[in-house]
Amino acid sequence: ALRAERLRLLLWDPRHRDDARRELEARIRAHPEDERALRELARLEAGDPTRAAAAAVRYAQLLAAHPDDPELRLGRARALARAGRRAEAREAYARAVAASPTLEVRLERAELLAADPATREEARAELEAILRDAPRSRRARLALSRVLLARRETSLAAAAGYREVLREAPRDPEAHLGLAQAYAWNGDPDRALAHGDLAA
């Protein structure tokens, strides 16, 4: 009971992630069938880019026993994305969305798609769909604005998105920085400098 309580405390504080990992590994060595410990270790490793690939393998093993578990599907997708294996992560996120199409999972998938120029249009379509379902989502609005800002011909549409964010969150630094870039790109240096100062 004391070890279980200590583990909870270690997991609660990110500064003790390595101690928590060692405690979980010891628990799994003593009880290889302890699925709760296996899941917790996979989740912990997935948050560390240097261990995310190992977490993806661990999630794959857990999914072999529970192929319909949406939590495991999402965990594997996150681990693959953190490990930089984008193609596999896109496939894994597609399965995670199919298993549990929550706003959070859809947003994570869209942000992954937006990070690659080859899938940016797919990200745009998904983010527009998310905003139809959740028009007040600041995260989705910012993500869509980032996608639009990547091209000069859509940078004014990005500016409109950033202004929408600032209506509800006037001190959002990303929105001010995005507006500065959009205005600079479209020949409005005064407003670009003003929003750059506000972002800073």
Commentary on this structure:
The longest helix has 14 residues, at 17-30. This protein is elongated. With 200 residues, it is mainly α. It has helices at 2-12, 17-30, 35-46, 52-65, 70-82, 86-99, 103-114, 120-133, 138-149, 155-168, 173-185, 189-199. The mean pLDDT is 93. It contains 12 helices and no strands.
Q: How many distinct beta strands?
A: 0
Low-pLDDT sequence parts: none
First-to-last CA distance: 49 Å
Strand content: under 5%
Tally of individual helices: 12
Structural class, by secondary structure, is mainly alpha
Please summarize the sheet with the most strands: none
Radius of gyration: 21 Å
Shape: elongated
* H and E string: HHHHHHHHHHHH
As a percent range, the share of helical residues equals over 70%
Q: What's the mean pLDDT score?
A: 93
Question: In a few lines, what is going on in this structure?
Answer:
The chain is 77% helix and 0% strand. It has twelve helices and no strands.
Give me some keywords for this one.
200 residues
Fold blueprint:
Layout: H1 2-12, H2 17-30, H3 35-46, H4 52-65, H5 70-82, H6 86-99, H7 103-114, H8 120-133, H9 138-149, H10 155-168, H11 173-185, H12 189-199
Helix pairs in contact: 1-2, 2-3, 3-4, 3-5, 4-5, 5-6, 6-7, 7-8, 7-9, 8-9, 9-10, 9-11, 10-11, 11-12
